[in-house]
Design goal:
The chain is α+β, with helices and mostly antiparallel strands. It folds into two domains: 243 residues, no CATH class; 43 residues, no CATH class. Helix content is 25%, strand content 46%. It is built from four helices and 13 strands. Strands 1, 2, 3, 4, 5, 6, 9, 10, 11, 12 and 13 form an eleven-stranded mixed sheet that branches. Strands 7-8 form a two-stranded antiparallel sheet. β12 and β13 form a beta hairpin.
């Protein structure tokens, strides 16, 4: 009986140990599953454009050239920069009045060594040695001697080889030159985190004073888990940003008005409850009772959207 009791106690102890190990392993797997870098982006409120039409511009009678500069900041909230695959920035003019002619930064390749070249030395050496050691001992006279013969031939060649390069910045036009994209990858010479400046040259109608562009930013990061590795999107944002011609007070004011209207709309949108599924129809009806209505029967979100649409329409009028 005593042996049986000890055996039962031993089984209980082993079962408890297995449960603790399983729980610890599960917690470790969950932590590994959740490991992914988090990135936050900050975009400009508006973009001031300068008239840089060069002398003798062929289409000067009906077109002009404007230059716009903007700064986008990226901040790493969690994880390590080594987990980042790339950042993708897109600037699009939806009404297609801006045609992008050039942009900075251009596509850039980075070498792993200085001066973009590797010096390779190929050396071949042949050597042969013959040696004989004679040591005769005589009771009265001892004779010791060493005979050595050596030959050595060497040959060396030196040449330069172009090093393989890695793509750190890719840029180009999209939507038939009515947009431009920038793809930034990790670099040995610079950090992805922080502020980066971008600029563009675009042709616009002669009377152009302002417009609206859509800026889309996103990061792709590595997500490691116990079962597999994957790449996910982090920190994606899309904002409407106003453009205005430098020195145009009305255009600058409309661009700022668009910013305020867009921020107000996004705040109300973020405060909305999640959309109900088929099992939450009753809850959805209850939530609708608490949605604020204005005098004309529209919700605050609808009014904010109408205000955003009107601000955008007024700014786009300056581009015609």
């Amino acid at each position: 009986m005593f042996a049986r009791a000890n055996f039962r106690q031993f089984r209980c102890t082993m079962h408890t140990t297995r449960c603790l190990v399983t729980a610890s392993l599960f917690a470790t797997l969950v932590a590994a599953e959740a490991s992914a870098a988090e990135v936050a982006f900050d975009l400009p409120a508006s973009i001031e454009c300068r008239d840089v039409t060069p002398p003798g511009f062929a289409a000067a009678e009906y077109l002009k050239v404007v230059e716009g500069k903007l700064r986008i900041s990226a901040r790493l909230l969690a994880g390590a920069e080594g987990d980042i695959v790339d950042f993708v920035y897109e600037i699009r003019n939806t009404d297609r009045r801006l045609r992008f002619q050039d942009y900075l930064p251009n596509t850039t390749l980075e070498s792993a060594v200085a001066e973009d070249q590797i010096e390779v030395k190929d050396s071949t050496e042949k050597a042969s040695t013959a040696s004989a050691d004679v040591h005769v001992v005589y009771k009265i006279l001892s004779l010791g001697g060493t005979l050595s013969q050596s030959t050595k031939d060497s040959e060396a060649n030196s040449y330069r080889q172009i090093t393989p390069k890695e793509l750190v910045v890719a840029s180009g036009t999209i939507e038939r030159e009515h947009g431009v994209f920038f793809r930034l990858r990790p670099s040995r010479a610079a950090s992805l985190e922080g502020a980066k400046e971008f600029s563009f040259l675009a042709t616009v109608p002669k009377e152009w004073r302002g417009d609206v562009c859509v800026i889309n930013v996103s990061a792709r990061v590595k997500k490691d888990s116990f079962w597999s590795d994957s790449v996910i999107t982090s920190g994606a944002r899309e904002l409407q940003v106003g453009l205005y011609l430098a020195g145009d007070a009305e255009g600058a004011e409309l661009a700022e008005e668009l910013t305020r209207a867009h921020e107000h709309y996004l705040e109300l949108l973020a405060a909305q409850p999640p959309k109900p599924n088929v099992f939450d129809s009753v809850a959805a009806q209850t939530v609708s009772l608490f949605v604020k209505k204005s005098k004309n029967g529209k919700s605050e979100l609808d009014e904010a959207y109408d205000s955003l649409t009107e601000s955008r329409r007024r700014l786009e009028q300056l581009g015609r």
